[in-house]
Specification:
The chain has 29 helices and 29 strands. The protein has 943 residues and is of the alpha+beta class. It has a seven-stranded mixed beta sheet, with no helix packed on it. The chain has a five-stranded mixed beta sheet with strand order 15-16-17-19-18, covered by helices on one side. Strands 27-23-22-29 form a four-stranded mixed beta sheet. α20 packs antiparallel against α21, α23 runs antiparallel to α24 and α25 packs parallel to α27. It starts with a helix and ends with a helix. Its EC number is 3.4.11.-.
Amino acid sequence: MSRKMIWCIVACTVIASVQWGQATCSPLIPTEELSSTTATLRARPEEYRLTDDIVPSHYDIEIKPYFEPEPNRSAFSFDGSTTITVTAAAEKIDQIKLHTSNLDLLSVSVLRKSNSAPVPLINRTYDEETEVLTLILSTELLRNVEYLLVFSYVGQMEEDMRGFYRSYYTENGIKVWLGTTQFEQMEARKAFPCFDEPKFKSQFDLKIVYQHPKYTPYANTPLVRNDSLGNGRYRATFATTPVMSTYLLAFIVAPYVKTGVEPVPILARPEATNQTEYASSEGRKLLQHLGTWIDYPFDKVPEIKSMAMAAIPDFAAGAMENWGLITYRESALLYVPDEATSLQQQRVATIISHELAHQWFGNLVTCEWWNVTWLNEGFATYLEYFGTDSAEPSWELGQQFIVDKLQSAMQADGWPETHPMTHPVYTKTQAAAIFDAISYNKGGVVLRMMEHYLTSVVFQTALREYVKERAFKTSQPEDLFRAFDRHNANASEYIKPWTTQPGYPLVTVTSDPEGFNLTQRRFLYNGTTDSNEVITWPLPITYATTEQEFAHTKPTIVTSSSFQIKLANASELPYFVLNNQQAFYYRVNYDEELWTKIGNALRSDKFGGIHVLNRAQIVDDLFNLARADIVSYERALDLLDYLRKETEFLPWLAAANGLSTLSLKIHEEDEALFTNYVLDLFAEAYELVKFQVPTNSERRVHTYLRRLVLDWTCRYGHEACSKEALREFENLRLNPQTSKVHPDIRQTVYCEGVRRGTSEQYNFLQTRYLSTNVATEQQLALQGLSCATRETLIHQFMNLTSSEDVRQQDKSTALSLLLANPSSLPAVVSYLTENHGRWADAHGSYRYVGQAFQGILVRTKSVSLKDTIQTFAQTNEHVLGPEAYSMIINGLEEYELNEQFILNHRDGIRAFLKRKDRSAATVTTASTIGMVSCLTLLIIGRF
């Protein structure tokens, strides 16, 4: 596994521990890497793709699910029949290739459509690797003549959250089953034989045979007929869909209730109908806004009458943009104001905006193949923030985009193993892997860069033309570039390198008597460069030397590797800051003189007028320049000491991300110093936000700042924070019917109550986790439970995670949360070495045991833990299997690299921490991180 993928495990645990945004990666990383495309193929590349010789135009599909055993049918199977209308697009075609997976084909026939004359089959073959079914015909097909492919088959509704799968919710302790779909990227073939690539757009006619009145069927389009078949069975017939790709077809068979108002009704289990009002109202607002922004109202597609949104109990992704029937995890759609944080509300709104944006960028205009996934996901990410920002301007989402998306993309894109936005894809695993921070976040960032380059008006005009030109078709990047070029002849020359080259630039600024010299080279964390590969980018340059100049974000494009900016009296300027508002995708390093000026400005009144986004940029750049050995840690931390006076959320969020990574690089013997440093650094921020509920008048981002500050200060043992959190927790525990913790401080309260508590506190919160009907509250409770510090409680948490009480979709999140708790690692190791079989069974295979150990190895600094894992792996290699064993070996290698990094940088970091250690005079520490304080336990007893 590459260092980039190792980073993704660490990053997800860091993100999960704070839960600021939506992590785009998971500890459950695909084993196949994009960077080694051909090496991982078990068939020739062309064999994974269908040819264009046969073109589908229409599907007739009927599905009959069985949720209980019936004669000759097992529970959770389904009968299927599919007829596909196809045309031979070339001469001498005597084979038809299409996709199918996990379907028992009972009969297959080929007919000429005009007269139903059969075309005899000589044979049919199937390739398990490519999932391609080949029908070998006795005669050649006539060109431009329509034929029918007729299939009868039986399939299975698994619990793997792919294809047509089963899920459930509980009602009075009884499981209530339902069937739903997830076809992206290549899973429609698990429900019906099909041409399962985005470019093969067709129309679909769907029928569902179901049990009435127990179940209700839903699909992309409205119900047009509902015929009784007797014995409690009905056949629901749905209207013909628009021309669309197979991955966008969707259907649900569930005892759901429809609430909300058209055109955005909400489908949910009966007990959740009181949680749907916000999604419907916000969805209507966003749907209207996005349709106006792109000048293509959603109802301009006549087949789509509404944009229903369904809350699914088990759902692998956050949401899925099926045209007219968008599916979501419950926590991404359902919202109760008294039970959800402000950030959870924002997450619901932004995910809705993301999925609605796909109705144009993905559904109406579709990427031709997954190698250009960014044409779908980059636009959706852009509108996730800027679409919601227009509807909810007080949330300041346009600014949050910089830290949440641009800076997080840089984290993933700074390793040699990264990939360009446009990158070859062949297999299912590769297709899944490219749905990552590069396609999503970098895709959105590059589009945002294009907006600054073209201006917002021209950018919007070009996109409106692009959508109208490519409506109901597929798209390649060149189609988008042509739309931009019509308005600026140099547009494609500017944007294309950012999509076809991996990584991003580091711009180094040095001063001279006449101005400033700029040079660019690729930024890499490991400092290596290929001498035969010198990559440069068309570099967008903006800069500021005064507060007013930060408003200018239209760039000058520099195509050379070096450039001089001439400014009169350059040496007398208070500072020189490059990349105004961090609108563009590169890091900046300055010479010592310029860093000193920037540091002086940041420590002056109002931060010298440096824009809040540039302060966030400087914070992020310094942490990462130090990590890449470009700036010393001692110098970087000295400059970042200005944060003591910082009052804004975004610089602190960038700092929290940097400090989370730095915490993994602190020598074990220096952790007490680091604890004192963190408490001192956050001391004034704590006094600014205080441990209190938000006021009605405060800015939304100030609420987010409080949540961040309380999380860090309580976690590192701030006495006042811990005392307030414990008081809130105990009031709730002792008076659960009358006491309530405000959602925006609930995460800190839950975590601190369990961190400093005993089994009483843990069991109280676990009961809330198991009994709540609200998914967002479940998230907060799971986060709190993961803060346990006692071995018995950590083992209890892992038993919970290994049980059905934690749904499959949440098991990886639970592990991420736990590994973000440094105190848990010894207990996690002891649990896994003793219960590895249970963990493998609960998660699906020993691969997940290997991933868990690997996640520990990239975080721990303990030699004894490393040795325990190494001994376990060597002793149990045959049990683990080659994949899990390889993951542990990779983790051991990363442990050694991290240990070396710590030793190499210890002196500089330690010197700074000792110089800044004012804890005895200014900070009272109740405990160091990961220790349960006797004092706080005594405080609990007094409540």
